[in-house]
Design a protein that fits this description.
Elements: H1 2-10, E1 21-26, E2 31-36, E3 39-45, E4 47-48, E5 58-67, E6 71-73, H2 75-80, E7 88-90, E8 101-105, E9 111-113, E10 130-131, H3 134-143, E11 149-153
Parallel strand pairs: 1-11, 9-10
Antiparallel strand pairs: 1-2, 2-3, 4-10, 5-8, 5-11, 6-7, 8-9
Length: about 190
């Protein structure tokens, strides 16, 4: 009940200029970094696409931010990224394949979303989307709005295979469930 009383306070408009936020998807490092006024404010582990249906590189933006979404299960989208007429709508909830959050980006059938299997984040492949733990997807959904820009990139790994790569900006990460990938750490299926 206390949260319901605080909700109007969270939605108040202010005369202060809104901060400029942007996201960077580091595909090889399996991270989403969130910047505010060019300062790193959060970093989330993720599963970015697959070799068959990769997450798009280059610029994109958030076009929708939906809590408790329905999931449109379409075998054609999952296998090759092309929408078909043969699909099923699954009800919302934490066990929904896209979890509790769907943040669409301006690419057909691609978005950032939660998952009912957070233990597999960073250790498997997705069907072209950016998959995150439900709790991380929820936090990110509260920090970004429709129109927030993003960029997918592949950074060059450190030349020494015994050294794990680190983000370019010094910042506190919000959570890290697994070490950065390098030959020093095994990848789990």
């Amino acid at each position: 009940m206390a949260l319901l009383r605080l909700l109007p306070l969270l939605c108040l408009e202010s005369d202060a200029p809104s901060p400029t936020r942007r996201m960077e998807l580091l595909r090889d490092e399996r991270l989403i970094e969130l910047y505010e006024n060019d300062q790193l404010i959060a970093c989330f582990p993720c599963t970015p696409g697959s070799s068959q249906v990769p997450v798009p590189t280059g610029a994109w933006k958030v076009t929708a931010n939906i809590l408790m979404p329905h999931f449109r299960w379409d075998k054609s989208v999952l296998e090759n990224g092309v929408r078909s007429e043969n699909a099923y709508n699954l009800p919302p909830g934490p066990n929904n394949p896209v979890g509790i959050v769907w943040m669409a980006i301006n690419r057909p059938s691609v978005g950032m979303h939660g998952t009912p299997t957070p233990d597999r984040i960073g250790r498997n492949e997705s069907h072209g989307c950016i998959r995150m733990a439900n709790w991380d997807a929820f936090v990110l959904s509260q920090l970004v709005a429709k129109g927030t820009p993003g960029r997918g990139e592949v950074r060059t790994c450190h030349p020494d295979p015994n050294v794990a790569t680190m983000p370019s900006s010094p910042a506190v990460r919000t959570r890290s469930l697994q070490p950065r990938h390098s030959s020093r750490y095994p990848r789990f299926p």
